[in-house]
Amino acid sequence: MAILGWAFWKVNQQKDAALRELYERVAEMGKAQTEAIVKVEAALVALKDAIEEMHEHTSAGGGDASG
Question: Where are the domains of the chain?
């Protein structure tokens, strides 16, 4: 009976270690995803600012941007 208990404990210990490893991987992936989203958001803001600045320059120059 003691061997059965030890085997059960060992299996649970291995499962716990696998779950910890999985959690760490998921946390790393979440961090990388968040960093990527922040970079994309910054790029979109910069693009928006550039487009607005371009419109301001075309409007200030008196040119018709509609063609």
Answer: 30-55
